[in-house]
């Protein structure tokens, strides 16, 4: 065999080895690239999923806060209506003496207060009836239960009504418009709240 043939054989064998190495290298590169792309896609999908979850969570929080704010605004508006109604009622009470039916109402308040105390009196006890000076003319000639045991004192300042007590101070009855309004206030507020809730639009 001549030298050229040997050289050509070595070259052919080298080229075949190089081709084999290149083929293996390309296969490894492709596998690495495919794995990298797959991992990149997984990472991208995770990021997108996390972002979507965070977005949904944020939207839910915003929606909840918006709903709570709307409910609070509605509650505040309803409370303002209640307060305005109560203020108007107080104004009406202050002017109750101007009503034509006030004398009859006043007489009923006196009668109720005195009748509530009479059963509690012992021996020769009397009832002290506190009345506003402005009602002095109304009480004259009025039929008061147990009138002979009632002492009138015009030292009260109120929208109308009276306060009665046994002369030893052990039993007292407040029967003014203010006291009755105060006692009824919790129920009035509850009724107004229900009324406005049913009749005032929320949005």
Report strand %. 5-15%
Biggest beta sheet attributes: 4 strands, mixed
Order of helices and strands, N to C? HHEHEEEH
List the uncertain runs.
none
H/I helix tally: 4
Shape field: rod-shaped
Q: For the largest beta sheet, what order do the strands appear in spatially?
A: 2-1-3-4
Radius of gyration from the alpha-carbon trace, in angstroms = 47 Å
What can you tell me about this protein's structure?
With 203 residues, the protein is α+β, with helices and mostly antiparallel strands. It folds into two domains: 1-94; 100-186, ATP synthase, E subunit, C-terminal (hypothetical protein PF0899 fold), CATH 3.30.2320.30. It is 67% helix and 12% strand. The protein is built from four helices and four strands, in the order ααβαβββα. It has helices at 3-94, 102-117, 136-139, 177-199, and strands at residues 127-132, 150-156, 161-166, 172-176. The chain has a four-stranded mixed β-sheet with strand order 2-1-3-4. The radius of gyration is 47 Å and the shape is rod-shaped. The mean pLDDT is 79.
SSE map:
Elements: H1 3-94, H2 102-117, E1 127-132, H3 136-139, E2 150-156, E3 161-166, E4 172-176, H4 177-199
Parallel strand pairs: 1-2
Antiparallel strand pairs: 1-3, 3-4
Brief account:
The chain has 203 residues and is of the alpha+beta class. It has helices spanning 3-94, 102-117, 136-139, 177-199; strands at residues 127-132, 150-156, 161-166, 172-176. It has two domains: 1-94; 100-186, hypothetical protein PF0899 fold (2-Layer Sandwich), CATH 3.30.2320.30.
């Amino acid at each position: 065999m001549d030298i050229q043939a040997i050289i050509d054989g070595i070259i052919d064998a080298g080229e075949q080895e190089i081709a084999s190495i290149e083929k293996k290298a390309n296969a490894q590169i492709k596998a690495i690239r495919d794995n990298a792309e797959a991992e990149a896609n997984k990472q991208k999908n995770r990021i997108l999923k996390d972002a979507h979850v965070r977005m949904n969570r944020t939207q839910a929080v915003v929606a909840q806060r918006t709903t709570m704010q709307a409910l609070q605004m509605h509650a505040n508006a309803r409370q303002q209506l209640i307060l305005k109604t109560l203020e108007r009622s107080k104004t009406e009470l202050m002017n109750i003496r101007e009503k034509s039916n006030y004398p009859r109402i006043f007489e009923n308040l006196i009668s109720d207060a005195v009748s509530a105390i009479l059963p509690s009196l012992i021996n020769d006890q009397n009832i002290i009836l506190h009345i506003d000076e402005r009602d002095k003319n109304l009480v004259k000639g009025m039929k008061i239960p147990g009138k002979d045991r009632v002492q009138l004192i015009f030292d009260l300042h109120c929208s109308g009504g009276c306060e009665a007590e046994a002369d030893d101070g052990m039993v007292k009855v407040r029967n003014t418009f203010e006291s009755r309004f105060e006692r009824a206030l919790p129920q009035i507020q509850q009724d107004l709240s229900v009324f406005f809730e049913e009749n005032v639009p929320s949005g």
